[in-house]
UniProtKB/TrEMBL annotation:
Keyword RNA-binding: no
Site residues, Raises pKa of active site His: D144
Catalyzed reactions per annotation: N(1)-(5-phospho-beta-D-ribosyl)glycinamide + (6R)-10-formyltetrahydrofolate = N(2)-formyl-N(1)-(5-phospho-beta-D-ribosyl)glycinamide + (6S)-5,6,7,8-tetrahydrofolate + H(+)
Lineage start: Bacteria, Pseudomonadati, Pseudomonadota, Alphaproteobacteria, Sphingomonadales
GO molecular function: phosphoribosylglycinamide formyltransferase activity
Protein name stated in the entry: Phosphoribosylglycinamide formyltransferase
Enzyme Commission number(s) from the entry: 2.1.2.2
Active site (catalytic residues): H108
Role, per record: Catalyzes the transfer of a formyl group from 10-formyltetrahydrofolate to 5-phospho-ribosyl-glycinamide (GAR), producing 5-phospho-ribosyl-N-formylglycinamide (FGAR) and tetrahydrofolate.
Residues noted as binding N(1)-(5-phospho-beta-D-ribosyl)glycinamide in the record, renumbered to the chain: G12, S13, N14
PANTHER family in the cross-refs: PHOSPHORIBOSYLGLYCINAMIDE FORMYLTRANSFERASE (PTHR43369)
Entry keyword Ion transport: no
Top-rank EC class of the record's enzyme: transferase
Length: 187
């Protein structure tokens, strides 16, 4: 099975979706590490409860490149062949991206290439878009700008708030990410 490390910064619900899918005997990947830039990220405990090795290091006080090289060392020590960013709220240094380019995926809460960056749900509502969604893409040096691998749409409904949109988008994220990761490692 392909060895995947998941990087998170918070809740880790996408990490859990990836880990749950990995339990299927025919799943082509296994999660070898869950790493975080926040030692208090709730997702780390969720990973530990599932018996997945965890690693964390606070980015505070470290230069970006310095921090990223520590992450890279942890990924390699765990034998990771692929990296899945899942709510990892750190910009990546060019060196780190170059080391993992083509083998690092991200999930983003918009229909890329629309709404890169933060606060996507509020921005979709402010624009009055009737359709919204989620995307999985390969990570390149451009923030949320790498090749889109797959997307799932949701309808924007009357009365939607950023929170209601986020929770419906999350359902789609949890379906999409394990599918796309499995497809990628099978190639
Ligand atoms: C997800 O909605 C993910 O798409 C988003 O953060 C959330 C993390 O939730 N990612 C980004 O905004 C990346 N810029 P999770 O920790 O429960 O997976």
């Amino acid at each position: 099975k392909a060895k995947v490390a998941v990087l998170i910064s918070g809740r880790g619900s996408n990490m859990v979706a990836l880990a749950d899918a990995a339990k299927a005997p025919d799943c082509p990947y296994e999660i070898v590490l869950v790493g975080s830039n926040d030692p208090a990220a709730p997702g780390l405990a969720a990973a530990a409860r599932r018996g997945i090795p965890t690693w964390s290091l606070s980015h505070k006080g470290l230069k970006r490149a310095e921090f990223d090289m520590a992450v890279d060392a942890a990924l390699r020590a765990a034998g990771a062949q692929w990296v899945a960013l899942a709510g990892y709220m750190r910009l990546l240094s060019p060196d780190f991206v170059a080391r993992w380019e083509g083998r690092m995926l991200n999930i983003h809460p918009s229909l890329l290439p629309r709404y890169k960056g933060l606060d996507t749900h509020a921005r979709v509502l402010a624009a009055g878009d009737p359709v919204h969604g989620v995307s999985v893409h390969l990570v390149t040096a451009e923030l949320d700008g790498g090749p889109v691998l797959a997307r799932r749409e949701i309808q924007v409904l009357p009365g939607d708030t950023p929170e209601t949109l986020a929770s419906r988008a999350l359902v789609e994220e949890h379906i999409l990410y394990p599918q796309v990761l499995a497809e990628m490692v099978r190639r």
